[in-house]
Amino acid sequence: MTRENELLKRIKNGDSDALSELVKFYYSDILRYCLWHAQSRESAEDATQETFLKAIRYFDYYVHKGQFKAFLYKIAANTCVDMHRKKYLKDVSIENQQEEFSYTEQGFLEVEADIQLRQMTKALSDDLREIVILRFSQGLSLREIASITELPLRTVQSRLRRTLKQLKSEYKKGGNGIEHKI
């Protein structure tokens, strides 16, 4: 039994400590995801907290047929969209975002790669950028991405392949060094 499955089982049995452990287990991943969609670290932290509150609120409706992580990312994506609609989150400014990353929380090289990936993907459409973020920044499998985006697996594969070709072409024209991410 995986750590995730063990925690989910304990939560179903009413163990509040398991709930805290689950939040700790996924907090940094969800925060990092929200940083991609937020103007500031505070906005990302608010979106992350709201994501976990919603996950707890709707936990009884969760049917464990896949990874809970995909369920959390879907909630985070919807939360960020909701916050955008409420004018809570503003357009991402790469220059401002660079200062918002916590160099102590993540490795410096990882942060640099995320900043470079953000610069390379800023011209992509939102749906293509989302696939690239989930794959290369969050390290999710294509199957998990398909679940989160509610797209067929083949569609995710073809969009990712096409986008990578586009990014590599951009890189060859003078991109800024994200070949290790691609």
UniProtKB/TrEMBL annotation:
<dbReference type="InterPro" id="IPR014284">
    <property type="entry name" value="RNA_pol_sigma-70_dom"/>
</dbReference>
<keyword id="KW-0731">Sigma factor</keyword>
<dbReference type="GO" id="GO:0006352">
    <property type="term" value="P:DNA-templated transcription initiation"/>
</dbReference>
<dbReference type="GO" id="GO:0003677">
    <property type="term" value="F:DNA binding"/>
</dbReference>
<dbReference type="InterPro" id="IPR013249">
    <property type="entry name" value="RNA_pol_sigma70_r4_t2"/>
</dbReference>
<dbReference type="InterPro" id="IPR007627">
    <property type="entry name" value="RNA_pol_sigma70_r2"/>
</dbReference>
<dbReference type="InterPro" id="IPR036388">
    <property type="entry name" value="WH-like_DNA-bd_sf"/>
</dbReference>
<comment type="similarity">
    <text>Belongs to the sigma-70 factor family. ECF subfamily.</text>
</comment>
<feature type="domain" description="RNA polymerase sigma-70 region 2">
    <location>
        <begin position="22"/>
        <end position="87"/>
    </location>
</feature>
<dbReference type="Pfam" id="PF04542">
    <property type="entry name" value="Sigma70_r2"/>
</dbReference>
<dbReference type="Pfam" id="PF08281">
    <property type="entry name" value="Sigma70_r4_2"/>
</dbReference>
<dbReference type="InterPro" id="IPR013325">
    <property type="entry name" value="RNA_pol_sigma_r2"/>
</dbReference>
<keyword id="KW-0805">Transcription regulation</keyword>
<dbReference type="InterPro" id="IPR013324">
    <property type="entry name" value="RNA_pol_sigma_r3/r4-like"/>
</dbReference>
<dbReference type="InterPro" id="IPR039425">
    <property type="entry name" value="RNA_pol_sigma-70-like"/>
</dbReference>
<keyword id="KW-0804">Transcription</keyword>
<feature type="domain" description="RNA polymerase sigma factor 70 region 4 type 2">
    <location>
        <begin position="116"/>
        <end position="167"/>
    </location>
</feature>
<dbReference type="GO" id="GO:0016987">
    <property type="term" value="F:sigma factor activity"/>
</dbReference>
<protein>
    <submittedName>
        <fullName>ECF RNA polymerase sigma factor SigW</fullName>
    </submittedName>
</protein>
